[in-house]
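quick one before i forget lol
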Amino acid sequence: MAEITSTTAPNGLPIHRIAIPGTRATTILVAFDAGARTERAEENGMAHFLEHLVFKVGQIYDDYRKVNETAERMGGSLNAYTSHDLVAFHITVRAESAPEAIDLLTDFVGRPKLDADELDKERGVVIQEIQRYKDEPASVAGDLIERAGFGDHPLGRTVLGPQEHLESFTREAIIAFRERRWSGQRGGAFIVGNLEHVSENGSVDEAFGRFPSLAAPPQAEAPASFSPEVLVEERDSNQSHLRMLYQPQIDPADPAQRAAFGIYSTLLGGSMGSRLFDEIREQRGLAYSVFAMSHVASDYSALILGAGLESTKTGDPIVPKAPLVVLTNGGTASASEIVAGALQDRGRATLVGEKTFGKGVFQEVIELSNGGALDITAGQYFTPKGRNLGGKGVSQGAGLKPDLLVKQPPKATRDMALRAALSKLGRCEAARK
């Protein structure tokens, strides 16, 4: 059983020691609430760029070679990553080298010089990284599903940012971002594994005290209400990639629900023994890559499903007569509502859950010369059988009535519609056999 103790450095940075019996290695990680979603629109890409820059020069380890050679001499694995939610730096070494590893990590991460010459060199490196991602269909698909799920919200922007931003970033702007976001009060340090060689005399807190004392930054912008859309990017390629994003009804602050969600994702498509991998790849040979991936942050959660296959196979029906259930609720609108209505009209799927939103029209906005705008109803949405999703012309609110009505109680901790859908599928599968 892991033993956890916590202290706080003078700069407000929490330091968590997690002793794990039976290991001979130690991992040190420090992270801050300074990911891509905390950037302003014109800063998009800056959090990731800053991650690259701090590796160059510290105060004690004042040359990138000293940083790299010190880590390698310890036999350590040194790395970092930036996500939408955070930026993190970590090193794993044999337990005897933990004090030196802490000294190394807190020096160049806590006291980077952000040299102007190195900034210009690394700028070109990151631009090449951006171009590499654009050449990878799977990476492009990942960017598209985030934009489809979150739109103009910072979660819908890429972590790497656009090339034109990288070309414009100044040293002063990068330092300002670091001073605004890298606050110990919104960060955390973790020392995990064999802690026999980690001192308890205050030297660890002193090392992590190298990070400056900064005011707590504002909270990142909360995600907007979930309103997904369908995005397609065509390329002359032998590969086709599909991504789907679903937001489960779980409480991100509840550890039990987070754990259950992670287990569900793993069973669905997180391993070679998962349901998706077994059915789609092993049994049917329809895709070379298929997966499910869960992500939970402090204020939202997402389940991403993905597949990669030969473009010639995109038209093949996966399971032509397999039972199909579509989950619906008041947030089912636009593309998802149209698809649900079409499947219901054709008798191809059972709608389970609550009545859909009922978005019967779509608008076109025309900007006026006086700074105003004109919002014109440009068209209406109909199902194959002629049902207007809004009910009566340009009004909205009728929506689709589910075949199986399942209401979600306000205080329910489980997705009741999902449970009913799984039960429905189970009965259908039993009947087929």
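fyi Residues 116-134 form the longest helix (19 residues).
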